[in-house]
Amino acid sequence: MDYQLDFRIKLWMEEVAERLRESLNQKVEIQEKQGAADLVTEMDRWAETYFVEKITTYYPDHQIIGEEGISDTPVTSTKGITWLIDPIDGTLNYVKEKNHFGIMVGIFEDGVPVAGYIYDVMNHDLYSGIVSEGVFLNNKPLTPIQVDSISSSLVVGNVGNYVENRYNLQAIHHLALGTRSYGAAALEIIAVLRGEVCLYASSGLNPWDFGAGYALCKALGFEVTTFTNEPLNIMEKSPVIFAPKHIHAEALKLLEV
Amino acid sequence: MDYQLDFRIKLWMEEVAERLRESLNQKVEIQEKQGAADLVTEMDRWAETYFVEKITTYYPDHQIIGEEGISDTPVTSTKGITWLIDPIDGTLNYVKEKNHFGIMVGIFEDGVPVAGYIYDVMNHDLYSGIVSEGVFLNNKPLTPIQVDSISSSLVVGNVGNYVENRYNLQAIHHLALGTRSYGAAALEIIAVLRGEVCLYASSGLNPWDFGAGYALCKALGFEVTTFTNEPLNIMEKSPVIFAPKHIHAEALKLLEV
């Protein structure tokens, strides 16, 4: 790991987070992507552009996969360093709640997670993880709450996935003590990292949705895979489960693919 | 409204909140009530006892309905001043997440809401509302985000209610842009007060679950009723919906009783 890179990412995320908080008091231009629940704002584009300009200035040979597609260099191979960037994760919450959204950055080398960063913007909380070092909350080591089993824990995920019973997710809902849903992968992954819930399973996440969490979970020794226990491909959308190893094994037996 | 009462409640809630935060670093005794998802801890009992002792000292003629039944004077009529107290709302979150729980106090006169208080403990946020005055967040006036319709807004509620489609709640889930679930009525009512979501509907709340929110919503001019548009009886458990007037009317047409 390049520790100057870690230093710079944190600095850049603080700047973006501050600007996003300020934007909540201003009029922000909003557009629909694939319907009224899939929004993009000028601030998503501004934030991703900010990261892309920094990266191309300081690391011109790095590749970038961002939600808004700001970088104009297509990524056709996972070779080298790749950044996975979600400039505002939970844009619907950002627009409607003015709360409960995150910034996510994942750093991968040859397709393997190296470091991950999730900023819980309104709580001023930056979760950073280097796979070889562990996870830190505002630079202090994070120790997750111990979770024993699904039946003695809470779980988190999208309500629609549970209502429609995609991949038999209702089996997990019924086994767990309760199901929570925050509407932002960033906050749902944070809940797993803290051990507030024992797992987060999603029927479909894009690389920018899972990149940061993939690296952060690996830094805690947690498992992150598809529902068929395969490693994630950072160039593909797929179902993803984030959980400590023993919970991950328990959940895979319940999920149906 | 007795403003000395308002002054004292805030002081007492600050003390209880501080003690609850401290308790997260200590071993706390936990017992099951009606199963593994329905917990009570020594801190629930401690907090309710704290309130009951204060109330019986300063207001010996007031009535108390608390979740843990600490007060030994049965309430058989709504006449006079009645306190509805949930010492820890979201005890399961308190135990499992060490996060996302609240303290709720509602003040009623002859069964009618007068004032309500919800403490979002881990965010250090006290929402207080006097029906004739409005709602305040840490003593600053709270202005909710405007919500136009269910189809252009988020909603909040228990995932189980949506999965089981109790009272046809899935119609609301499908119409809304998204459904959130925090596992604590306190935090779900706060989301309505702030306008982060347009409504919170629950298939069954006890008086201590809805008392504070009933008064806080009334202080903003919002509606709080059963699913058949009846006023709430503070001596009975019932389905409850909290929402601004126009959203409340829209939701009642979708709910099936």
Please write out the topology.
2 copies of one chain form a homodimer.
Chain A: H1 3-23, E1 30-32, E2 39-41, H2 42-58, E3 63-66, E4 81-89, H3 91-96, E5 102-109, E6 112-120, E7 125-130, E8 134-137, E9 140-141, E10 154-156, H4 159-163, H5 169-175, E11 178-180, H6 185-194, E12 199-205, H7 207-219, E13 223-225, E14 238-243, H8 245-254
Parallel strand pairs in A: 3-4, 10-11, 10-12
Antiparallel strand pairs in A: 1-2, 4-5, 5-6, 6-7, 7-8, 8-9, 12-14, 13-14
Helix pairs in contact in A: 1-2, 6-7
Pfam families (chains A, B): Inositol_P
Binding site for Mg(2+) (chains A, B): 67, 86, 88-89, 209
GO molecular function (chains A, B): inositol monophosphate 1-phosphatase activity; metal ion binding
How much of the sequence lies in strands of chain A comes to 25-35%
**Total E-strand runs of chain A:** 14
Structural class, from helix and strand content of chain A?
Answer: alpha+beta
Largest interface, chains and sizes: A-B, 31 and 31 residues
- Percent range for helical residues of chain A? 25-40%
Largest sheet of chain A: 7 strands, mixed
User: Can you list the strand order of the major beta sheet of chain A?
Assistant: 3-4-5-6-7-8-9
Cα gyration radius of chain A (Å)? 17 Å
Quaternary structure state of the chains depicted:
homodimer
CATH superfamily of the largest domain in chain A: Fructose-1,6-Bisphosphatase, subunit A, domain 1
Distance between the termini of chain A: 36 Å
CATH architecture identity of the largest domain in chain A: 2-Layer Sandwich
**Total discrete domains of chain A:** 2
How many individual helices of chain A? 8
Mean pLDDT of chain A: 97
Give the overall silhouette of chain A.
globular
Q: pLDDT below 50 for ≥5 consecutive residues: which ranges of chain A?
A: none
Question: The CATH topology of the largest domain in chain A, please?
Answer: Fructose-1,6-Bisphosphatase, Chain A, domain 1
SSE string of chain A, helices as H and strands as E: HEEHEEHEEEEEEHHEHEHEEH
